[in-house]
Structures are given as C-alpha cells and as structure tokens.
Amino acid sequence: xxxRPLLGSLLIALTLLVGTLPAAAQLFETRAKxxxxxxxxxxxxxxxxxxxxxxxxxxxxxxxxxxxxxxxIESGRLTLDDxxxxxxxxxxxxxxxxxxxxxxxxxxxxxxxxxxxxxxIVQSANDGCIIIAEGMAGxxxxxxxxMTERAHAIGLTNSVFGNSTGLPHPDSKVTMKDLVxxxxxxxxxxxxxxxxxxxxxFTWNKIKxxxxxxxxxxxxxxxGLKTGFTEESGYGIVSSIKRDGRRLFLAMSGMASLRxxxxxxxxxxxxxIRAFDRKQLFEEGETIAEVGVYGGENPAIMKAKGxxxxxxPITYPDRLTARITYHWPLRAPLxxxxxxxVLKVYIGDTLSQETPLFAVNSVSKGTLHSQAxxxxxxxxxxxx
Length: 384
Hints:
Organism: Hoeflea algicola
Pathway: Cell wall biogenesis; peptidoglycan biosynthesis
CATH architecture of the largest domain: 3-Layer(aba) Sandwich
Shape: globular
Function: Removes C-terminal D-alanyl residues from sugar-peptide cell wall precursors.
Structural class: alpha+beta
CATH superfamily of the largest domain: DD-peptidase/beta-lactamase superfamily
EC number: 3.4.16.4
Oligomer: single chain
C-alpha cells in the first residue's frame, strides 16, 4: 500500500480496513464509575470507562510506594534485611493510635524492610508506609516527591502523589489507565517481589491479618494487587488474573460498597477471560504500509517489530479498523530501523491497541529532479 500525502508538517492518518466482525455482542456494563481492563500479552484494551479521570487514589497509592522500594532494592540502594526505625509520627499517623489500616508497629522499634513490605502489601499498613518513607527520604513529603518523579519516569503521565499511604491529601490524584500501567510494570519488572501480593495473610506483633483483596480466595486465578477506599472516590481495586494462558490487568474505582467492588471486579475479569478470541492481524515481517518520503528516491516500508495480535470480542457488531499515524513529511535520508509511525487498532470507536512501526529500508535522497517535484507538489498543495 502506497500513501504519499503532501500536507506540510501534519499528523497523517492512513486507515486500513482489517476485517469485519460478526454481529451481536452486548457491551459489558459496570457500576464502577471508572474502569480499565487490558490484556497483558497483546496490550489490547478490553474495556475502558472514564479511564483518564483523575480520582483520589486511597490505598491504591501504596502500589507506587512499593514500586519506589522495589526499584531501590533492584538498584542495590536497599536490601530486604535493612532495618527502619518507627518514629512517633509514623506511630501516631499510621499506627494503632490512628485507627486506620496498620501493622501495629511498636513505637521506637526497628523493623526489617521485608516485614514492612509484607505489612504494606498484605495488611495495607499505613504505619509501614510512613516508616519506609521517612527511612528512605527523611520525610513523607520528600518521599511523595520521589513517588511522583518515579511515576512519571515509568509512564504514569496523569498521576501525582501527596503521600505514601493514600490517606486523603489535596495533591493526590491517579487515573485507572495509569494504575494499570503501574500494575503491569510491577508484575513484569519485579517478579521476585510480585509474589507478596498473593500472600493470604501476614502476622506482625502477634496480630494476624488477612489480605484485604477479596478476589484472592475465589480460586479464579487472581494473584494481586490492591484495594482502596475514600469517601470522595468510593471503593476501588487494582487486580490481575492469570488463567487459561492469559493475564489481564484491571483498575476500577467509584463503587458503592465492599460487596459491589468484589462483584464488579470478579465479573469483569471473568468476562475478559471468556469473551475474547486472539486474532493475528499481521504476521512477523509482514509489510503494513508503504509511505512516501519527502525528497527520497523510494518510499519507506513500515513494519512492526514482531507479529501484531489482538484480542477480539467473540461477537461484536462493528468493524475492526486500523489507522497508521505519522508526521509528514518524512524526510530523506531516512535510516532503516527508525520509528516512523504508529498502528492504532480500533474496535468500533474504542482505541484498543497501539503498535510502533519502523522503517525496514533506508531511503536515500532522490535526484534533484524528484526533490524539486516534491517541493513543487507541496507548494501547490499549500496554495490550494
């Protein structure tokens, strides 16, 4: 397919008809105000509802707290055997005196980092978060800045963290899309630590507390990650399920009760596993498009780095389409391997997948005649 637009420096969209799907599936409905469900392997967006709304994170912020800790361990700045002191601030703000989620850390005691991690993940311990924050950054405010900086570095573009716990703070905002990005990052980057999210219980200070994730005990394949609640945003959850050779990641918020959260999360995860089939759109090495290169002797051939697969609803009334977007003009010389576009796949009106596209071939500058002709055509287009 050859496509040679001459429209100045603009974002060009080339639409490809990939296929037509059979009719009549029902769209999934949920009582959650915000939700985002993604297939881990293909990156297919299976469901999206207000996924870019910014909401208070509640205890879902603890996922970011743990990412900062895991990154510090991975880089060698910390070890699981490092110990942290329990300050009066941590004890009063997040400990037994606070009447919030706590691991009941004793004032002025020392606790191993691994125990703090398990307290935060399994027991949602606010005292554990503050102890870690003060030990790593000197204060919770400093640690919150580290959280936000780290969040932006790993692709959480619309989230800000005001503290390590998720307790109400005017600066703290997250989106469901960002939380799924974070959950996927934790699972793939730190598999040695991800196991903590499936622990059924943890005992500290002779007090045994069960994991607050209501889906772990249902035997449906859920192995993480976190629940949260605030008066403003309602009940939320970030979860992952691995079953039938597939893994899905889910973030939901805005539910009205513990029971509703458990029911809605279970329903959408099981729907995501059962209601989709995998389809290959392009084989590995298959040409996806050819596009003109301004001043070049030949067009650029666009391919993905591997096969392009997507999960499709078993039944769905709309057409499946793909659009290639790139900034014109692509200018010669162009090196092979350069990223020059994006393949965007839509199911109906929903953007379900984005895949970077790369130039397979190098494109040298053409003859003076061809360069002049490109310039003349572009000038003519400009003055139309």
